[in-house]
Amino acid sequence: MNQLPILNIKEFKNHNPDATFYANYFIPHLKLNHLSITGPHKHDFYLTVLFTKGSGTHEIDFSSYPIKSGSVFLLNPGQTHNWELSDDIDGYVFFHSKSFYDMAFNGRTVNSFPFFYSTQNSPCIYLGGINIDKMETLFKSVVEEYQVFSLLKRQKITSLIDIIYIELSRFCVDESISDNKKTNSYSIKFRELEQLIEKKYQTEKSPQYYASELNISPKHLNRITKEMVGKTTTDLIIERVLLEAKRMLIHAKQSFTEIADELGYEDYSYFSRIFKNKTGENPSLFQARYVK
Predict the structure, then answer these.
(1) Given this model, what pLDDT does residue 178 score?
(2) Is 90 exceeded by the pLDDT of residue 264?
(3) Read out DSSP for 222-283?
(4) Are 70 and 126 in contact (CB under 8 A)?
(5) Sign (positive/negative) of CA torsion 207, 63, 114, 17?
(6) CATH: 3.40.50.970, 1.10.510.10, 1.10.357.20, 1.10.10.60. Which one for 181-290?
(7) Best CATH choice for the domain 6-173 from the list 2.60.120.280, 3.40.50.150, 3.30.420.10, 3.40.50.10190
(8) Can you tell me the distance from the alpha carbon of 97 to that of 150, in angstroms, rounded to the nearest whole number?
(9) Residue 291 above 90 pLDDT?
(10) Which of 32, 123, 153, 154 is most buried (CB neighbours < 10 A)?
(11) 209 in helix, strand or coil?
(12) Which of 103, 149, 143 has its CA nearest to residue 22?
């Protein structure tokens, strides 16, 4: 069993009756929840943080990002993260369930935004100058609205975070892409592939399986993945397997053989070769760098 904590919104002091949304200034959030959020963990919700002061390092799924004024981090449910923060850190944080956003907008979903659309996209956006002030005003409005009980509170909060996501999307995507029908069709199929890999990566490693499930040829599926992220279908499958392997090597109390078996590899030596080929080190060396 993986021992990494998975946090739920209900664990946080909540001013939302159905506990599907939470917001706070970052300093009180850190003080109230330091025991649960200072070590490596996951969430079952979508998380957004704006840092307005301070510095540090934010590690998300084993990639490190510098923290500075104007940095925004957006995490999907299930992503592993951990941070090291300076004493003068400050900012804002909010998170919500998928239904909190999706129920507010008919026919739209939170996964339509680039930072939540694909885990291949960066979880970090760096703002500067006037854009920091503009974004801070929006985040502050979210927190202020969340902490009072007013008429149409939920509607106002969802409207505010929708504006935040729209503004942040403009930093991620060239607007000309929206007119490209080929890119849009590829995007939809790519998202379907990622969702299918998330469900099946432990048991299905063949690109042919995923192509069949998506009703396209393996060659066309590879064409889509190459166009979208410059990787093959096999690359995406193996990346997801190795991400889970890294999580388990650090946080699970299982042997290397048991981890390999749980990830669909009966032959540990074969799994170890794949791990070393893709990461540059074998599982034991990787584990040693994190587990002291």
Answers:
(1) 45
(2) yes
(3) HHHHHHHHS--HHHHHHHHHHHHHHHHHHHB---HHHHHHHTT-S-HHHHHHHHHHHHSS-H
(4) yes
(5) positive
(6) 1.10.10.60
(7) 2.60.120.280
(8) 21
(9) no
(10) 123
(11) helix
(12) 143
Strand pairing of 42-43 and 6-7?
parallel
Higher per-residue pLDDT: 185 or 140: 140
CA–chain centroid gap for 42, Å, is 9
Neighbouring C-beta atoms of residue 246, cutoff 10 Å: 19
CA separation (Å) from 47 to 13, 183, 192? 16, 27, 22
- Kindly indicate the confidence band of residue 181, based on its pLDDT and cuts at 50, 70 and 90: very low
Closest residue by Cα to residue 44 from 82, 98, 7: 7
DSSP 83-141: EEE-TT-EEEEEEE-HHHHHTTSTT--GGGSHHHH-TTS-SEEE--THHHHHHHHHHHH
CA 114, CA 172: separation in Å to the nearest integer? 7
The pLDDT of residue 176 is 41
CA distance 224 to 235: 13
Residue with tokens 């149409």: 152
Q: Answer for the pair 263, 271: CB distance below 8 angstroms, yes or no.
A: yes
Task: Say how far apart CA 112 and CA 172 lie, in whole Å.
Answer: 13
